[in-house]
Every structure is written in structure tokens, then in C-alpha cells.
Write a structure and sequence with these properties.
37% of the residues lie in helices and 32% in strands. By secondary structure, the protein is α+β, with helices and mostly antiparallel strands. The protein has a 6-stranded antiparallel barrel with strand order 1-2-5-4-3-12. A 6-stranded antiparallel beta barrel has the order 6-7-8-11-10-9. A hairpin with an 8-residue loop joins strand 1 and strand 2. It is extended, with a radius of gyration of 41 Å.
């Protein structure tokens, strides 16, 4: 009986080694924190530092990737804008031609033959006179003063004002002070005069009663519908019965390499 009691007593007093070890580690950590707080902080930082470095590296890679994606996106947007402008001009011209063809069906007895000569642009401002440029064709290709010079998309640029053996000088329609007869496209068909302001820019003074919208094409007067410029702004003053319409050529003279000279003769 006594032996059995002693055996049960020994079993009740036995504590698992794992619990003892955990208590010792916890008490040691608490004591170390109060005795050496700076050391514990350094140990903690040492453990955390690799994780923080990895996180910063991942964040940096994501930031650089975002910048590259933004640059590529901006380039794509710029290219799409250029293509959209080209298609818009093509649509404008197609619409104008369709309207013009309907009107010309009753004028079948009128005909004009146009011969065109391809020319390279040699000099432009500031190498040439203001709002003029030179081309590599002259009397050797039978061009003459007054011939119209066209850019891509049949955009009218100006006329030849001087002819030499193998060179010609072209003056832009936008030359300051130069006046060109124009008309609004579409159903309004209002006529006006565009005054050159230099470097492909024009201004038109017309009655306020004529509705003009930004983005509207202005074409040369005549049998053909060639877009001289696109309305960029309309300025209206309350005390003025006229409005100022500002337009710009759809082409930049500084980027042109080739043009066409149109020679016209009546049949």
C-alpha cells in the first residue's frame, strides 16, 4: 500500500521538460529585455532587415516597370493622335468631294486639265525669306509664276512667285498680309477672306451671325475643295458685330520634304 502511494506521488510531481524549457526561455527573454534593451532591438532588426530589403526591391522593380509602361503608353497615344488627325483630314476631304461631285454633275461642259510636277523642298525659313521656300524645279520643268503648290493630301501651301532655270520660289498663303479667298465647308457655304499671319496661320473676320465651330475646315474658293486650314479658335467681342476666326494649316512647312506644282491649262 505504501509503495503504491509513493509511485502515484512521483507521477504527480513530474513536470514535462518542454514546459520547463519554454518558461526558462520566456523568463530569459524578459530579463534580457530589461537588462540589455538595445541588444534585443538589434537582434530584432537583424532578423527583419532581409525581409525589409526584399520588400523594397520588389517595390522598386514595380515602380520602374510602371514608369516604362507609362512611357510606352504615351508614345502609343501620340502615334494614335497622329493617325487620327490623318484620318480626320481624309474624311473631311472625302465629304467635301462627295458634295462637290453632286454639284458638278450639272456643269459637264466645263473641264480643266491639270499637270503636276513633283518637286523637292530645298530651303525653308530661316534659310529662305520669311514664309517662303524654294523647290528644285523651274523653267526646266515648265512651271510658271502663279502655279499652285500642294502638299500631301492636296493641302494648298502657296503659289510660285519667282521662277529660275532649275529653282522656283514659293510664297505661302499664310505670308503676313496676304489675302486669300476662302469659304466655309458644309451647308453654310459662307465666303470670306483669310489674311495670313505667318507660319501657316490665318485669321478671318466675318459677321457674328455666321456660326463657326472649332475644328471646322476652311477651304479655298474655287471649283476644288482643298482645305486651307482648320479653325483653332473663335474670338467674339460683345461690342463688335464681327468675329475673329483663327485657323492653321493642317501641315507644317518645317516637316515637308516633297511637294507638287500644279500647272493648269484650259482645254
Amino acid at each position: 500500500m505504501r509503495q503504491t502511494y509513493l509511485q502515484h506521488s512521483k507521477r504527480r510531481k513530474k513536470i514535462p521538460f518542454g514546459i520547463i524549457a519554454a518558461v526558462v526561455v520566456a523568463l530569459g527573454a524578459v530579463g534580457w529585455h530589461y537588462l540589455f534593451p538595445q541588444s534585443l532591438s538589434e537582434v530584432t532588426q537583424g532578423i527583419a532587415r532581409p525581409l525589409l530589403t526584399l520588400q523594397a526591391s520588389v517595390s522598386s522593380s514595380g515602380f520602374i516597370g510602371a514608369i516604362k509602361s507609362k512611357v510606352l503608353l504615351e508614345q502609343e497615344v501620340a502615334a494614335l493622335k497622329q493617325e487620327n488627325e490623318r484620318l480626320r483630314l481624309s474624311l473631311i476631304r472625302s465629304t467635301l468631294l462627295e458634295t462637290e461631285n453632286k454639284e458638278l454633275r450639272s456643269f459637264l461642259n466645263r473641264s480643266e486639265a491639270r499637270e503636276r510636277v513633283l518637286a523637292a523642298v530645298l530651303t525653308r525659313p530661316p534659310q529662305s525669306r520669311y514664309d517662303t521656300f524654294t523647290i528644285d524645279v523651274g523653267s526646266n520643268r515648265a512651271v510658271s509664276v502663279g502655279d499652285v503648290v500642294l502638299g500631301p493630301g492636296e493641302v494648298p501651301l502657296g503659289t510660285i512667285i519667282e521662277v529660275f532655270g532649275s529653282l522656283s520660289l514659293v510664297e505661302l498663303y499664310s505670308s503676313p498680309g496676304r489675302v486669300t479667298d476662302v469659304r466655309l465647308s458644309g451647308a453654310k457655304e459662307a465666303t470670306a477672306q483669310a489674311r495670313g499671319r505667318g507660319l501657316g496661320n490665318f485669321v478671318i473676320e466675318m459677321p457674328r451671325a455666321v456660326a463657326v465651330s472649332v475644328g471646322e475646315p476652311i477651304v479655298l474658293s474655287g471649283i476644288t475643295s482643298r482645305v486651307l486650314g482648320i479653325v483653332g479658335a473663335v474670338e467674339v467681342k460683345e461690342t463688335d458685330p464681327f468675329q475673329s476666326v483663327f485657323l492653321s494649316s493642317p501641315l507644317s512647312m518645317f516637316s515637308l520634304r516633297f511637294v507638287e506644282v500644279e500647272r493648269t491649262r484650259a482645254l
